[in-house]
Amino acid sequence: MVEMVRRGRERGWESGIASAGGSREEELVGASLAQVHRVPLSRRRPGGLIAAVAATRRALVVHEPDVVVAHNVSATATTVAATRTVRRRPPVVTVFHGVAEADYRLSARLLSRLPDAAVAVSAAVADRLVAAGMRQRPRVIRNAVSTPVLPSRDDARRALGLPADARVALCAARLVPQKRHDVLLDAWDRVGAGAILLLAGSGPLQDQVTRRAARVGGTVRVLGARSDVPLLLAAADVAVLASDWEGLPVFVLEAMAAGRPVVATDVDGLREVLGGGGGRLVPPRDPAALGRALVELLDDPVLRDVESASARDVIERHYAPEVMMDQYASVLDEVLVERKNLAGVSSS
């Protein structure tokens, strides 16, 4: 989202964001890249969906967009409901990042009916939607990132109070069941002394993760929500993600663009991005395998350098922002032309 807003401005796009908050929103606001409209996060509480639709409607009235890009099914349902309450109804394009396996059938059914077009962030996610019954395979547009400007490793570690000679791994992810911080912490028990695990992110499992981290043999720092991921990456030797499922997480792309090898689970979009090098893939829910892969990279600086070069190469070849922007521009143009044609037919 941040990359689209930033580079969209260069193309003459004016963006508004309907958001429940978070570090990505802070980045946009801090750079004065977009007007942000607050939308309640929980749509499952009594009245939550109504409040979310009302807030989204207010954003539509204020911003009057030509098209709305909604991320995932819940935001799509909220947005489509809101568009039906305004005089000038913009088309809706869904960007689908994936769900747990049990939720694909419902997602496929809703994405076949609600949006004007659907985009999947990886081929694996698109394939799962089709297998679950989606009428038409969504367009695949992979997330993209720019090469970050990082402080030096020593400066970053001083700023974070980390020893210069420590082995450091970073996981930046929401503290939710999908991300399997429990598996990561079980794996970290096997890494050994002299290593530090940084956990950046917030979520409903914050207290549980904090308590579990306190019992791990190695040093774990639970940092909470952070908007300075480049600083954290500069301090880290390795990035890690132990998720049960993923579409194509931006954190992994950011880490690879920064030249940080990634240890991640062998699922969906992670398999796509790391299959060509840049780290290690391990079976999901396997702390022993995850621990071994972390030790392998943390203990071998020469191997890290090799995987670092591979990671940067993968990003440069396959996840360039301009390619992503051209693809989204094509999708948005198509839905706008289709809406215009439909309007012409209805008025004739």
Keywords:
348 residues; Rossmann fold; glycosyltransferase activity; 4-stranded parallel β-sheet; alpha/beta; 12 strands
Overview of the molecule:
The protein is α/β, with parallel strands linked by helices. It folds into two domains: 2-144 and 321-347, Rossmann fold (3-Layer(aba) Sandwich), CATH 3.40.50.2000; 153-318, Glycogen Phosphorylase B (Rossmann fold, 3-Layer(aba) Sandwich). The protein is 48% helix and 15% strand. The protein contains 15 helices and twelve strands. It has helices spanning 2-10, 23-30, 48-63, 72-83, 104-113, 123-131, 153-160, 181-188, 206-214, 229-235, 250-257, 268-274, 287-298, 301-318, 321-347; strands at residues 16-19, 35-38, 68-71, 92-96, 117-120, 139-140, 167-172, 195-200, 219-224, 238-241, 262-265, 279-282. A six-stranded parallel beta sheet has the order 9-8-7-10-11-12, sandwiched between helices. A four-stranded parallel beta sheet has the order 3-4-5-6, with helices on both faces. Strand 5 (117-120), helix 6 and strand 6 form a beta-alpha-beta unit. The longest helix has 27 residues, at 321-347. The radius of gyration is 21 Å and the shape is globular. The model has no long low-confidence stretch (mean pLDDT 92).
Secondary structure layout plus pairing:
Blueprint: H1 2-10, E1 16-19, H2 23-30, E2 35-38, H3 48-63, E3 68-71, H4 72-83, E4 92-96, H5 104-113, E5 117-120, H6 123-131, E6 139-140, H7 153-160, E7 167-172, H8 181-188, E8 195-200, H9 206-214, E9 219-224, H10 229-235, E10 238-241, H11 250-257, E11 262-265, H12 268-274, E12 279-282, H13 287-298, H14 301-318, H15 321-347
Parallel strand pairs: 1-2, 3-4, 4-5, 5-6, 7-8, 7-10, 8-9, 10-11, 11-12
